[in-house]
Specification:
Distance between the termini: 124 Å
Order of helices and strands: HHHHH
Strand content: under 5%
Shape: rod-shaped
Oligomer: single chain
Number of strands: 0
Helix content: over 70%
Structural class: mainly alpha
């Protein structure tokens, strides 16, 4: 049967503890499957031995009663035969009782070993779940660390910088295009927007009037 100390020692030294735990769990399942019928047969033998002891005790009681009856009837020879059988059955009873004690000890030992194996089996199952959880967590952390390092690399940083510059350029082009579309005529040199002709003429006259006193003063 697999010992806890042996398992813990090997788990500390192997590279893949989860795989080793799976192997031990399979071994324990096989041991449990083999142990259950053995225990059932042991219980059967113990019950059969108890029945045999009960039958022998009954025979002893009957032979004792027969011997007493023969003595009362004056049949000493028959009484001796009954007592002789009683002694033989008594020796058998002693033998059966000793065998029963051995069977009971073996049964108790099997119970204890199977209970210990079951406890160890459930313990390893729990340990396997913990190791799987730890392995998954460690793998996730490792992957995230790789991702963080990758995003801090010079290549990624340059790529992000170029992307930002491109976005700024697109925004600037969009803003310039919007400004150009808002007043298309201002982009053509020497051309006056006919829609502004009247307003421009009024402003021009005001400017001329303001400029005339300055010229007269000269």
């Amino acid at each position: 049967m697999i010992g806890r100390a042996r398992i813990n020692g090997l788990l500390d030294s192997i590279e893949n503890p989860i795989a080793m735990l799976n192997e031990y769990i399979r071994e324990m399942e096989q041991e449990l499957q083999k142990g259950e019928p053995v225990l059932a047969h042991q219980i059967y033998l113990e019950k059969k031995q108890n029945a045999l002891i009960g039958e022998t005790e009954s025979l002893i009681a009957r032979r004792k009663a027969q011997a007493r009856l023969a003595v009362k009837q004056g049949e000493d020879f028959i009484a001796k035969l009954a007592l002789q059988e009683k002694l033989i059955h008594q020796e058998q009873l002693n033998l059966y009782t000793g065998q029963l004690a051995i069977l009971q000890y073996q049964t108790q030992t099997l119970y204890e070993q199977l209970d210990e194996l079951k406890r160890l089996y459930h313990e390893l199952q729990h340990k396997r779940l913990l190791l799987i959880s730890k392995a998954n967590t460690a793998q996730s952390i490792k992957q995230m660390q790789k991702t963080i390092v990758a995003f801090h690399s010079e290549t990624i940083a340059n790529g992000v910088s170029r992307a930002e510059d491109r976005i700024f350029m697109i925004e600037a082009e969009a803003q310039a295009s919007k400004q150009f579309m808002a007043n298309p005529y201002t982009a053509v040199k020497g051309y006056i927007d006919p829609g502004l002709e009247h307003e421009l003429e009024q402003v021009l006259q005001v400017v001329k009037k303001e400029a005339k006193p300055i010229e007269d003063a000269r």
